[in-house]
Predict the structure.
Amino acid sequence: MQIEQLIAKMTLAEKIGQMSQFNGMDGEISEEFKEKIRKGLVGSVLNEVNLHKINEIQRIAVEESRLGIPLLIGRDVIHGFKTILPIPLGQAASFNPEIIKEGARMAAIEARSSGINWTFAPMIDITRDPRWGRIAECLGEDPFLTAVLGPAMVSGFQGDLGSKGNIAACAKHFAAYGAAEGGRDYNTVTVPENELRDVYLPPFKACVDNDVATFMSAFNEINGVPATGNEFLTRQILRDEWNYKGFVVSDYESVTQQVVHGHTPNNKAAAAQAVKAGVDMEMVSTSYADHIEELLSEGVITQQQIDDSVRAILNVKFRLGLFSNAQTDPSNFPEWVNDEHRAVAKNAALQSLVLLKNDKNILPLRSGLKDIAVIGPLADAPHDQLGTWVFDGDKKHSVTPLQAIKEQTSGKAVVHFAKGLENSRSKDTSGFSEALEAAKRSDIILLFLGEEAILSGESHCRADINLPGAQELLAAELAATGKPFVTVILAGRPLTIRNIVNTTDAVIYAWHPGTMAGPAISDILFGKEIPSGKLPVTFPTHVGQIPMYYAHKNTGKPATSKSWEKIDDIPADAAQLSIGNTSHYLDEGFEPLFPFGYGLSYTMFDYSNLKLVETRVKMDNPVQISVDVKNSGDYDAVEVAQLYVRDLYADRTRPVRELKGFRRVFIRKGETLNIQFELKSQDLAFHNRQMKKVTEPGQFQVWIGGNSNAELTAFFELE
Ligand code: BGC
């Protein structure tokens, strides 16, 4: 009601003010900007983190503007504020919504203590292209996984929105931004509507169901229409179909970029298009401030459209409790980067590490090692281990792998450190001799390779996703020493690491693990903790395989290992055949290097006894499935058991497998756990040729196991 009363009192200029977001003050707050706030012409500010300045502009808004409406203070708090968590892609490898929620909660508290009340996260764009720099920021390739983890992040940020230390979250980027052509950021997206609805939208719908306060529209065009100015997306789907009551902010200047896209002739038309589409707030560009009044008087947009936007924006300010108190008193909050927050970051890093290879159980490292070589450009790189999107993180808090390994082995072993290469891109091999020296003096080589933070993230895409610089060469020379050899890779995306996997005994994929990279990696290396991470994204063998994802279609001519005609086996002058052809590359086959969901442990898990309570199930009855998982190795450990389903025949063909459930379970060595899954018929629904969401009766196949290549299988029929 208060909102309606407020709207009734607002002038048009004040309403447009609420719909406008301005960039941070960059230095002192100018008199001009203060005056703008006093006049009620500013709804939100982004990129301001100085608490003193934030409190001052909030005071002006509340005490000196006519209606006293507080400001939304937005910031990209993507994976931590001061204490940095693993990049979101790394967090997704935990397959653990609790870890993600806890991390977001910690980040919210730190950000809120700085006056920030709105973050532009979670980023829940599905992508199947590791060339895209923003893969670092998303939660992987899978709609089901993202639809579990994205809402968990929302819960962490928002909690009970009005209470202390909570900030508004933002589901972004609506929609299909991760499907950019060729993995080039901001690029064209062409995606059929059924795929949009079945693959790209479910995480957004899940965030709506979890009450996410805001949405952000995307930079890309989708099927010819920019996502910022797309009535189909932000009116029809978001408002009409999903009944979303929060508000939509544009991306940075994406309203006026409609002109650059070639969709609207000028900024005025761009503003009209965005308002009509239901983009409630314009980020940074000023086409709303400049043109809404005129557009309204010309009847191009309606008063109702404006009032709806203002209502939704004010509602978030109310939910945040800003009308009761917009001031931030830092003494109400714990210190940044305190021990508790570091523990949260370490735990997230621990669960994000994925063990990809462990020949002869070289890991965990045996005790009694006397000399340890720590080598590589990422071993002691406090800035780079933080990853992309850390505007507010400070490398001075980082604990590097080198520091942690030294501490862990202090008094027991000598650590011989050599960078080998100045940074990940370096091609200067003059540091190799020192690295080889260190290796020769040691019982084991621990090599830290990867990508610097700046090689992933927004607009930081790569056409070649090999390890950059001379890193592979460094690894090859070290391998030639014949010493036991472990490689840890810190990167913002899946890299094509086949050569490394072939030349080293063990590989840990660490993503960019954040502030506590060192202690987490060191605990895993020395067996204080057991790896449990699983890949949230497929690892291709070669960049040319992209897109390579597990939930692909079968095609009419699927490849098998027998059907792969290998390039080197083809005789000279071979004649072309028209029989026996299947879908693969002569040189790179059809399989990835590591499948989605993959990740080893120091123990072994055996899956058996896959059982369906009924194999003929009536529509609308749940399908109940159980499996035994035995920990047959030597360590108590956590496994992520995964359930995959295939709808064998459908009106519109279905993927060969889709993740439909997962469970993180702790199993003691020697013990067997019976795990149960339940599938509801709506879990099996998809959009058919009439664009209706349906579950079709018929035959289904299920698999349960430790990754998307799980072999244990059973069938059921839905009647
Ligand atoms: C990004 C958004 C981000 C915004 C504000 C844009 O360039 O695409 O994800 O929230 O900037 O920093």
Remarks:
- The chain has four domains: 74-308, 339-525, 553-586, 605-718.
